[in-house]
Amino acid sequence: MSTRQTYPLHIGPTHPAFKEPVQFNFEIEGERVITCDIEFGYTHRAVEHIARERNFIQILYLLERICGICSVSHPMAYCLAVEQAAEIEVPPRAKYIRTIIGELERLHSHLLWTGVAAHEIGFDTLFLYTWNIREKVLDCLETITGNRINYGILTIGGVRRDITPDLYPVLQETLDYYYDVFERAREIILDNMSIQLRCKNVGILSHENALAYCAVGPTARASGVPRDVRVDYPVNAYPDIEWLKPVSPLDAGREPRGDVYDRMIVRVHEIHQSIDIINFCMENMPEGAVDVEPKATKMISTLKKVQGEGIGRYEAPRGEVSHYDILDNREGPLLMKVKAPTYSNGITWMKMFDNVEIADIPIVIASIDPCVACADRMSFVDSGGRRSIMTSADLHRLSVEKQRRIGK
Amino acid sequence: MITLILTLLMPAFVLVAGIVLGLLMKGVDRKFAAYFQSRIGPPVLQPFYDMGKLMMKQSIIPENAVTWIFKGAPVTALSSSVLLLIYIVVPYFLYLSGVNHFFLQAGDLIVILYVLAIPTVALVSGGFSSGSPYAAIGAQREVVLLMCVELPLAVTTITFATKMSAVCESCPSFSLTTIASHPVWNTMGPMGILGGMMLLLSFVFIVPAESAKIPFDQGEAETEIAEGLLAEYSGKYLAFIQMADGVKSLALVSLTVILFFPHGFTDLTGLRITGGGYDFTLAADVVLFFVKIFAVYFLLITTVRVIMARFKISQAAKILLLTITVVSLSGYMLIYLDTFISAL
User: Fold this and answer.
1) Which CATH number describes the domain made up of A47-345?
2) Complex ipTM, two decimals?
């Protein structure tokens, strides 16, 4: 046989390796991946459409539920966008509290990711270990905000609840705990033989490709692109933190190659960075109000007078999330556009699947920390249940039509 | 008369006891793994509850499966696993109880090597015949694993046979009874003990590879190919496969115990327990054997699967074919040299 024999392998929409529905169609030769095609659209929930029916405050709680893990990042980007449009200045104490909550979220998100990655390569002990130490930050978040996952703490113009001085010991205890366990956790995660065997030189995204495909967040940083919204366009408390710089695999003494192991290094080191940032915020917490307007109705009527547009950018645990909002004398935004990190990172999968084995597929997919629910923009299903593919010309035509329709 | 009863009853007893003990071991294994992972874990009897549930469930046969192979594979796997267990355990206990029986000559390592492959081959054919691409990938991987583990296992077998032929010239050298009656550690110098250690080390990889546990569970790899071989199995066929898995693990652990730690109670203490005119030494031996089985199961299966990630199939093949073969070969060399020196 001179010709290569390949066979198709469909992974998804439901598969033990995935937490969310997405389909991958591979062409496999033996154990090697030859080509790959990705199908999104199984978990589209029309959030942007629903948002247009709601007022400014109601949207916050909708956006928290775009993604279970980025439940601060989306409202944060939205608040920043609306505040920019309405030229609202957030009090300094609220900025610091926002930073603390955002970094606690990053902490638990990265711990969760490490666990998921370990599970994908069959290392359940590490999976349970990281999820076990993650409980501490969830408990802390519950004490501070009242909830473990959907905190409901952000509001336009500040935060809804103050971190009162009697909550400081809780935060301090959490920080001490993570300073204590970090070194051991780092050792368990990064120095483990079998993890290195499975993660090194797997799913490589080169520096050029990371730039060309606009990778964001840890995925970009692992490929040696120093891209971090917290440093590049700092908001909240980040401008005050002088030592903040994007994490790179170089911090662990490894030349960035953009493989799965580099992404693991970046995330583990960001855990430490997050603890440092929270520590900084606690030490330099300004006094004062936490909100420009505690009454939601009053805030809505203020925003109703505004005409303009705003864009909010925030570094979610997975990378840059940006929201674009148009305010046009309505109770809610005229138009809202969400751009989640997976939207950028998902496309880099195509490059990562070069030269990998079937066994690498789950860890490569997990390595960008995908949030399919964030990235799903639309799904077209005709009455017969068949799915169709839209070309970019179709999409352009549809967007022009829609813009005309709602622009009236 | 006693021979006839033994011939008929022992295998029947081993069939029942093997399945029960195999499932119990699975339960204990899960409990210990849960302890390592700071979980509570399922009750120790969970595998039995699972069996009860699976037996009552409907078994779905895929439309494009080759039905007779698909249905036959689990039964073949279970029966060959039990056969393997009988072939390993019965001669050992006959030896311990001092009953002279033709079975004494039966525990032959070469036959064990072949029987060991049957459950895997049965599952592989079941996987290929189920018509699912995941199962086909799993079956391919399992075949690769089976071929790779054969070499170090064969080296170990030959080492033991060589050693036995030097220790006892009149005994059948491949027989488990011979190995059980001449524990390897007793007759070796420091170099031989080092060689024995290396063989034991190679078993740390061979046992998980033969019983398809992490880090060698590529054939089932839940997160990669959705349980691979077993992807299409359900109901009572899955129950049979799980029982076969339990019995096979038990057989492998028993083989390890008999090869490396065959010492009976009398061998260790030089005493015999008697009371009320009866000899309880055999009972003590049985208890001791169970203790050893639990210890070896815990060390070779539970611990290894808890502290490692799953290898890729290419890595697994490399590790088994190169590293472990080299380890077992050097074990062979050392033991051979040791025998050679002591013979001088």
Assistant:
1) 1.10.645.10
2) 0.79
